[in-house]
C-alpha cells in the first residue's frame, strides 16, 4: 500500500477502514445520507506533504499536491484580477517542487522543475534531468526526462541525456523506447537501430519483444520517408 493510500485509509471513517458496518449515531447517519456512502475520504495538503517527505517520488501524492497548489494560486490571482493566473500557478508548483527537491532521494520534483523551465532555461533543465536520472536506479526518471525533452522538440538533447545514463539491461524499457524514438526524431536511423539492439538485451522479454517490433517498424517508416 502506497503512502497516499495509507493517508486516505487513515482519514476514512473507522468502520470503512475495518471493512465492517460499525454502528453509527444519528448524526453520523444523517451526514452519511447527505454525503453519500461512497464519498471519498479527503486527503489534505498537510497529509500530502507528509507523504512526500517520506517518499518525494510518490507520483500520486506529487500530482495531487501540484494540482492543489496550482489551482489555489490561479484562483487567487483571478479573484484579485491582477497578474497572469497561469504564471502564478506555475510559480506555486515551482516553489513546491523546489522545496521537495532538496531531499537527496528526490527525482520526481526535479522532473517537474525541468518541465517548467525547459523553454526558458535549457541548461538548467538539462542539469536537473541529469541529476534526476542519477538519483533513480530504475530508469523511470530517465524515461520521463527523455519524454520531456522530446515533447519540447529537443531530440538531440534527449539523445545526449540518454546515452550518458541509459543502462539497457537494468533500466525500465520505456527509457530505451524514448532513446530509440529520440534518435528517429533526429533522423539518426543507424543510431536508432544500435539502441534498438541494445534494448533487445533487456531481460523482460514479455515487454521487450512487442516493443522491438513496434520500434523497428517506426524506424523503417521514418527511414523510407526520409530518402
Secondary-structure blueprint of this entry?
Blueprint lengths: L2 H9 L2 H5 L7 H10 L9 H10 L4 H22 L4 H16 L7 H10 L4 H14 L4 H12 L3 H11 L7 H13 L3 H11 L5 H22 L1
DSSP helix count?
13
Helix content: over 70%
Content-based structural category:
mainly alpha
Radius of gyration: 22 Å
Distance between the termini: 52 Å
The name CATH uses for the topology of the largest domain is Serine Threonine Protein Phosphatase 5, Tetratricopeptide repeat
Question: Globular, elongated, flat, extended or rod-shaped: what is the shape?
Answer: globular
Instruction: Report the sheet-strand fraction.
Output: under 5%
Based on DSSP secondary structure assignment, what is the total number of beta strands?
0
Order of helices and strands: HHHHHHHHHHHHH
| Poorly predicted runs | 10-32, 34-39
Going by CATH, the architecture of the largest domain would be Alpha Horseshoe
| Name of the top-level CATH class of the largest domain | Mainly Alpha
In round numbers, the mean pLDDT is: 86
| Main sheet makeup | none
Please tell me the total number of domains. 2
Region (Disordered): 1-44, 71-90
Protein name: Tetratricopeptide repeat protein
Organism: Kineococcus xinjiangensis
